[in-house]
Design goal:
It is a single chain. The protein has 13 helices and 12 strands. It has 2 domains: 2-43 and 275-368, Aspartate Aminotransferase, domain 1, CATH 3.90.1150.10; 45-270, 3-Layer(aba) Sandwich (Aspartate Aminotransferase, domain 2). The protein has helices at residues 2-5, 17-25, 45-56, 69-83, 95-107, 122-130, 148-154, 177-190, 242-253, 261-270, 276-293, 319-330, 355-368, and strands spanning 32-33, 89-93, 113-118, 134-139, 159-165, 193-197, 219-223, 236-240, 307-308, 332-333, 335-336, 347-350. With 371 residues, the protein is an alpha/beta fold.
Length: 371
């Protein structure tokens, strides 16, 4: 009966495999949780207090659809200085994920193709299917570098946009300036929308270069969930050509309405908070786990975000089998790579965890590799 009520869209994708791992983890006692993609540090106290102050001063209604003026002005000033594009405007989204939803709703027709590098953030493929598009996966194994020739070869008359993610989830790969420029110029040459997901830009242990620097028509998505430890507040932003932003705003008006107003006031204060200590701590965590497993796993050292994507070692034939063993015998939660990829060879580690949890994880991972 219920099946008859559901749309074809509801059957075009399955529930996130990450949630399934979380469900398994809920049954474990004191698990080694290296699965969750959110910081283990909290939002800065000053930013929390700013949001509380906004609540207490009755700033609890809808904000303008585009966001509160002080936050918009602050962001626009920074974007103008960084990129210098005359035709670029910004608005506040309900998280970066909300920005992705709006982007695909506003741009992708049924049958359109969306190019993304494989491995990819789990929402990319699902959202593409949700709007009736087709995900076109460009393989980046084994080093996860975006090969502009492979992307060019994937373009067809049906290609509507390219989704570009650097620093990347799940691999932690950070595109070089040349790679960002090559993809940006390809999109401009082919008149294809380039969407740059930059949610992890602060978690970058080398130079970060946005493709928007080389292509003014690039739509950039970002936010504060990861960098300021506030994923539950749902505050992100999008900036790009004014005409495109106006269309995204129209879709926001009829879906999310606006980002939560008190959280936007908290975000303004967060922008003035020094997060260098937290970023340095995450580089240390990256080094801890990489140095702890590099002799027994085939793993590329990540340069950004807070993820690592090792290959499951022998004797496991698939990463899914490896992850099942990790969960059932070592109470360690990691994510099988087939959730992010057409391949089932690697698994994702999130080192957004305490040093103690990481130490326990290294011990379990070494045992799983026979070390």
């Amino acid at each position: 009966m219920i099946k008859n009520w559901l749309s074809e869209r509801a059957f075009s994708f399955s529930a996130s495999g990450i949630r399934k791992v979380f469900d398994l983890g809920a049954k474990l006692v004191n698990p080694i949780n290296l699965s969750i993609g959110q910081p283990d540090f909290d939002m800065p106290e000053a930013a929390r207090n700013a949001a509380i102050d906004a609540i207490n001063h009755c700033k609890n209604g809808y904000s303008p659809t585009q966001g509160i003026a002080p936050l918009i002005e602050r962001l626009q000033k920074g974007i103008d200085v960084e990129l210098g594009h005359e035709d670029r405007s910004v608005f506040i989204t309900s998280g970066t994920s909300g920005g992705l939803v709006l982007t695909l709703l506003a741009t992708v027709n049924p049958g359109d193709e969306v190019i993304m590098c494989d491995p990819y953030f789990v929402m990319y493929e699902a959202l593409t299917k949700m709007v009736g598009g087709a995900a076109v996966l460009v393989d980046t194994y084994p080093d996860f570098r975006p090969d502009v020739q492979k992307i060019a070869d994937a373009i067809t008359p049906k290609t509507k946009l390219i989704l570009f993610n650097s620093p990347a989830n799940p691999t932690g790969y950070v595109a070089t300036a040349q790679e960002a420029e090559d993809v940006a110029k390809l999109a401009a040459e082919k008149n294809i929308l380039l969407v740059s997901d930059e949610i992890y830009d602060m978690f970058c242990h080398k130079e970060f270069v946005s493709p928007a620097k080389f292509n003014p028509q690039t739509l950039v998505l970002g936010g504060y969930s990861k960098s300021y430890g506030m994923p539950g507040w749902r505050v992100g932003f999008a900036h790009g050509p004014k005409e495109l932003i106006e269309q995204l705003l129209k879709f926001q008006q009829y879906t999310f309405v606006c980002a939560p107003q008190p959280a936007q006031w908290g975000a303004i204060t967060a922008l003035d908070c020094d997060m260098s200590k937290e970023i340095a701590a995450y580089k240390h965590k990256r080094d801890m786990i990489y140095d702890g497993i590099k002799d027994c796993y085939d793993v590329v050292k990540p340069e950004g975000a807070f993820y690592m994507f090792p290959k499951a070692p022998a004797p496991w034939k698939t990463a899914t089998e490896f992850v099942h063993k990790a969960i059932t015998e070592y109470s360690m939660l990691v994510i099988p790579g087939n959730i992010f990829s057409q391949h089932d060879t690697h698994f994702r580690i999130s080192y957004a965890a305490s040093d103690q949890t990481i130490e326990r994880g290294i011990e379990a991972l070494r045992k799983l590799a026979g070390k």
